[in-house]
Design brief:
heterodimer; A: 183 residues; mainly alpha; 3-methyladenine DNA Glycosylase II, Chain A, domain 3; Alpha-Beta Plaits; two-stranded antiparallel sheet; B: 560 residues; alpha/beta; Rossmann fold; 3 domains; 6-stranded mixed beta sheet; 17 helices; 17 strands; 39% helix; 15% strand
């Protein structure tokens, strides 16, 4: 009887020690869920979700502080992916909140630009080149279309130009065909 | 007799070859304008080298290959470049792409041709010649040929003369009429890869072509093999399987199993280029279907398809629209102004009688007939299910990308479901997502770098401030070393001569001298000033002195 108790207690101590050791030794830095959520977000860094960038929004979602329907650039598809990842219900974009729109890139009217560098400081992905009192221009390939450069411009020379469809970005449409009507 | 193998599945659609294969091929008449799309091959779009209004000669390079996976475009005849602008191209989207429009002058004047002896040229130069000669796979996929012959270790070279799609007879006619020239092209390709074995696979519904090729290949170590007629034997992977018994791994290329495969028409084009110096200017096109005299034409690239239909006696009264390629995989178009491009092997004029509209689709009954027909050994009914529900991850798990879009599944489907459309939709959707993903990854990288840079700037600023503070504190506590510190930082031309003494007193003296020199430098520009300017400077100097005194001694040490 006593021997059994000792054995059980001994096992408990050993297992406890192993668990305690591995908790310290194999500790995961940061929240892995944040990275998973961040991988789903479109990385426009636009702040339309109310957080300063995609990572902060991912962190907020992981902590349960934000809804999953706050990312317009991700579209409904993005919400679906987040819902699947987090095991929650799909939630459409809120009425009156920002809605998804076609992808656009910023365009600087170079005749109007005064070279103030304010847009350079606003761009979250360094997609604008230029220097003080030098004309600025957008690197269209790197622009995420976040529109953060538009409000700071003192001369309103930045406009958003929708990206036209090209042969490279063209996609086959979902096949739509008529089923034979019954009777 | 060679042992042949089987691939899984396959179908037997009505052949319709005899309509166009009986007449010998002729040269198509010179059209009024030639429209040459800059993207006629897989890979990067060719880069134009000419300008609108320029006169070009036949065979002159109009656009050069951009990068390795690309091919050049040449002027099919002499004439004037009318424009370089977007124009309609044969593409399922119906969108316009950049094209060079050429107005032929009718003289057909050649540029200088440079035939070479391929045995004397190193391999790299030969491959570069293929690229600059615009040679691409003429079986329909238009993969740049030079990319298929880069590898060294190839045991088997397979020449594809199967031509399994119904209606098409270009390779049949080409092999019957120009077998000797094809064989010369095969010799060049064989020289490129040093293959031990060379096989020509031809379906047994082309006995004349087989006979002609066997005669031309006799005694050259090229094995002409008659293979059973079964769609899609002409698929690269399927033909390799039949001839060698080897299977191309999923997601791989024939080169992975030591095989390379080209169309017989490609071999012919290689021969014209290397032995005659003639780049890819024209190709054989079957014009068939609802036309008066179905036949084959040697047509210049860029010829409008309506011109070829006209040359074939014109369309029958009930004609409506065209199919570019065969009925199984071809592209349905309505516009007769579309040009012949390197991939256009056949123009079928449609009519409701020949191609009745597809009966309405019924729900899938999961009979799995498609799975029996699939030559890639896939599960088309599952792929359809996943594509329909946009479950792309699952579709990829079921090897969607091994689908060759041959249409055998849709052909046998008793519910008439347009299966291939679903697979194409799923594939392009997956590609689009991958593009988005890589764009997002790039944006994340740039954003993180930017954040890091901001962080570093802040840190450096704080460090500088702390250093300054420290220096100021030391200066107050111990004046001599504080004076020495800035001296060490002075430019060497000021203090350099005194450095060898190296004593503390000397350093102090050097610092003193440096400071004097610095004040002298400052004073240099103040000579020959007007009284007014001097007064101004005086005023500014006093103000500066005042500010220096006022400045917070703890954080700001006065600059000299």
């Amino acid at each position: 009887m006593l021997a059994a108790l000792y054995v059980m207690a001994g096992i408990a101590v050993v297992l406890g020690a192993v668990l305690g050791f591995s908790a310290i030794r194999f500790r995961v830095e940061g929240n892995p869920l944040v990275d998973k959520i961040d991988a789903v977000l479109p990385q426009t860094q636009c702040g339309q979700c109310g957080f300063p960038g995609c990572k902060p929004y991912a962190t907020a979602i992981a902590n349960g502080e934000a809804e999953i329907n706050r990312c317009p650039p991700g579209g409904e598809d993005g919400i679906r992916k987040l819902a699947e990842l987090l095991g929650v219900e799909f939630k459409p974009f809120a009425e009156g909140a920002a809605q998804p729109k076609p992808k656009a890139v910023a365009f600087i009217d170079e005749n109007t630009c005064i070279g103030c560098t304010l847009c350079l400081q606003a761009c979250p992905v360094d997609a604008i080149t230029g220097a003080a009192k030098q004309m600025h221009t957008i690197i269209a390939a790197e622009c995420t279309g976040c529109e953060l450069c538009v409000p700071p411009c003192p001369v309103d020379c930045i406009s958003m130009v929708p990206v036209p469809q090209s042969l490279q970005s063209w996609k086959w449409e979902y096949p739509v065909f008529e089923l034979r009507r019954a009777a | 007799m060679r042992q042949l193998f089987r691939f899984h599945g396959g179908v037997h659609p009505p052949e319709h070859k005899l309509e166009s294969s009986t007449l010998p091929s002729t040269n198509a008449p010179l059209p009024g304008t030639l429209v040459l799309p800059l993207h006629q091959h897989i890979g990067a779009r060719a880069k134009p080298l000419v300008q609108a209004g320029e006169r070009v000669l036949k065979g002159q390079v109009l656009a050069r290959a951009e990068g390795n996976l690309s091919a050049a475009i040449h002027a099919p005849t002499s004439g004037m470049v009318e424009s370089i602008a977007p124009a309609a191209v044969p593409h399922p989207s119906g969108m316009a792409d950049l094209c060079i429009t050429l107005k032929p002058d009718g003289k057909d004047e050649w540029t200088e041709r440079a035939p070479v002896d391929y045995r004397a040229l190193p391999k790299e130069q030969l491959l570069a010649r293929l690229r600059d000669g615009g040679i691409v796979g003429l079986g329909g996929a238009t993969f740049p040929t030079h990319m298929k012959y880069t590898a060294g270790a190839v045991q088997t070279l397979v020449l594809n003369g199967a031509e399994c799609e119904p209606w098409i007879t270009t390779d049949d006619r080409l092999m019957r009429e120009r077998a000797a020239e094809i064989v010369q092209g095969i010799a060049i390709l064989r020289h490129l890869v040093g293959a031990a074995e060379t096989l020509v696979g031809i379906e047994d519904n082309k006995p004349e072509a087989i006979a002609a090729m066997q005669q031309a290949c006799a005694g050259r170590g090229i094995d002409v093999v008659s293979v059973p007629t079964l769609y899609p034997t002409g698929g690269e992977k399927q033909l390799i399987r039949i001839l060698t018994g080897k299977e191309v791994p999923s997601g791989g290329r024939p080169l992975n199993i030591g095989v390379t495969c080209s169309n017989v028409a490609t071999a012919y084009a290689v021969h014209r280029l290397i032995n005659h110096g003639e780049p890819m200017l024209s190709r054989m096109v079957t014009v068939t279907g609802a036309v008066k005299t179905p036949q084959n034409f040697e047509a210049l690239l860029g010829t409008p398809i309506a011109d070829l239909v006209h040359a074939a006696g014109g369309a029958l009264p009930d004609a409506a629209g065209y199919i570019l390629g065969g009925p199984m995989m071809g592209l349905h178009v309505a516009d007769g102004g579309l040009p012949v491009v390197k991939s256009t092997n056949c123009i079928i004029v449609k009519s409701p009688q020949l191609f009745p509209p597809a009966p309405p689709a019924l729900p899938c009954i999961r009979c799995a007939r498609c799975a029996q027909a699939c030559p890639a050994d896939l599960q088309p009914q599952e792929l359809y299910w996943f594509a329909q529900s946009k479950n792309f991850g699952k579709a990829q798990e079921y090897n969607l990308f091994d689908c060759i879009e041959c249409g055998a599944c849709a052909y046998v489907c008793p519910s008439h479901i347009p299966l291939v459309q679903y697979y194409r939709f799923a594939k392009s959707e997956i590609w689009a997502r991958e593009r988005e993903k890589s764009a997002a990854d790039a944006a994340r990288g740039r954003h993180e770098f930017r954040m890091e840079r901001a962080e570093r700037d802040k840190r450096e600023k704080a460090e500088k401030l702390a250093q300054k503070e420290r220096a100021a504190r030391e200066a107050r506590a111990n004046p001599a070393p504080a004076e020495a510190a800035p001296a060490a930082g002075e430019p060497s031309q000021a203090a350099g001569a005194q450095q060898q003494t190296a004593a503390a007193a000397m350093i102090a003296a050097a610092a003193e001298r440096a400071r004097q020199q610095a004040t002298q430098v400052q004073a240099k520009n103040t000579e020959n000033l007007t009284a007014q300017q001097q007064a101004d400077i005086q005023e500014i100097e006093t103000r500066r002195a005042k500010i220096r005194e006022m400045a917070h001694h703890d954080t700001e040490s006065p600059k000299e």
